[in-house]
Amino acid sequence: MANFFDKIANGAVGLEQSMLGPDYKYYKHIRTPGAMGASSAGNMDAMAKDIAGIINYVELLVAGGGPASDTGGPLGPRFYVKTAGNCKDVQTKKVVPRYIYIDNVPTGNIPLISSGLGVNFTEFKGLLPGILEDAGSLNPMSMFSAFQQGATPDCKEVKFPVQGDDRANHPTSGHVAIAEINEYEADQKRSEGFLSGNRILRGEKRKKKSKTAVPVFANMYFTGFGLLLVYLMYKMMHKK
After folding, report:
1. pTM greater than the 0.85 cutoff
2. Closest CA relative to residue 17, chosen from 177, 184, 173, 164
3. Which key words tag this protein in UniProt (predicted)?
């Protein structure tokens, strides 16, 4: 406990980043209108580029990625957080510092919609669906299962992708509990051929590839909401 307060005295910002992870400034990863060719010129070519820029921003908000993203893919940080606890390496049998892997990049797993239809919508990896996905991932059962792992659960070193503003000063690997690794990998392996628990109980077989179409109402909702946000941002920027 004394060591904890010593770290606060030496710098609360550094302690915050070590416990909560590095800062991730989303605006730094979104291209400006000028970078995408938009301008205030009054001609048809400029108007076409301006409209294309708006479409690119809506794509980033709804689908994720596109020309408005500096990486071309969905935005969000991926990082390791060192905990105050330890775990037991299953290979070396040694007690090592325990890490937690955080992945805030949307996967397309939208609550209610994905669980009801048994699919992950790859078209919905934008910032807006990501908010719904984060809300749906607040599962109290994960907290209860953490208590059952014990003080030093089994773990192994993993090197999951790291994505952020300051990757050089943060670990690119860490010892993560086996239960957490299995949960993360299972979530990543969910594809369009995923069957919900209810369908499995009914005895339906897993499909190799699913051509399930994205519901029209979902497309209309996220596209309309994205256009509304773009309009509000425009009005705020040109507020008198």
Report:
1. no
2. 164
3. Membrane, Transmembrane, Transmembrane helix
